[in-house]
Design brief:
Elements: E1 3-5, E2 9-12, H1 19-26, H2 29-32, H3 42-56, E3 63-70, E4 75-84, E5 91-98, H4 107-122, E6 127-132, H5 137-145, E7 149-160, E8 163-173, H6 174-182
Parallel strand pairs: 5-6
Antiparallel strand pairs: 1-2, 2-3, 3-4, 4-5, 6-8, 7-8
Helix pairs in contact: 1-3
């Protein structure tokens, strides 16, 4: 069972009852704005959490989709995760989604940093990358704050919600992460 603690957060496995709190987040249009999904229905949120729980049991485990809990309040404020590539098992993609009430407080940076550290130190990954919409300035700032470098700007590379969208690609290598942590 994966669990990471930071100063303010507990990033842990989903429990089946977490779907309601996640739905309260991912049903919001402002949360879904830069996501590949539309605001989720209750059934979609329930199925999403159950799939995350099911994925946790796979061996080898390729998906670490975890609940982000504000420890002091024991309140789910979002999710953060790593998806390990089947083709290149030493590489993973990072993601995070938080409730708007949690935006601008450093929680996304804290959760993302914890997941990257978990990926390198616990999972032994070589490379972690992320993509985001160029218009989502807050998201790419999180990636830069945790030490990821921008590798590229892909133009109209993804068909999202009925239109072509650009992507910014960020990444960090295990040795770069180690240098950041030692520095």
């Amino acid at each position: 069972m994966a669990q990471v603690r930071t100063e303010r957060l507990t990033v842990r496995e989903f429990a089946s009852g977490d779907w309601e709190a996640l739905h309260a987040i991912e049903s919001l249009p402002e949360v879904a704005r830069y996501q590949s999904f539309a605001p989720r229905t209750p059934d979609e949120s329930r199925r999403y959490v159950l799939a995350a729980i099911e994925d946790a049991a796979h061996d080898p485990r390729l998906t670490f989709d975890l609940a982000v809990i504000l420890t002091a309040e024991d309140r789910l404020i979002g999710r953060c995760g790593l998806g390990i590539s089947e083709e290149e098992p030493h590489e993973a993609v990072l993601w995070y989604t938080l409730h708007p009430d949690a935006w601008g407080r450093g929680y996304a940076t804290e959760a993302a940093r914890a997941m990257v550290d978990f990926g390198f130190r616990t999972l032994g990954l070589h490379r972690i990358w992320a993509d985001c919409d160029p218009a989502n300035v807050a998201s790419w700032r999180v990636l830069e704050k945790i030490g990821m470098r921008r590798e590229g700007h892909l133009v109209e590379n993804a068909w999202v919600k009925g239109e072509w969208a650009d992507s910014l690609i960020y990444a960090i290598l295990d040795r770069e992460w180690a240098a950041l942590m030692d520095g």
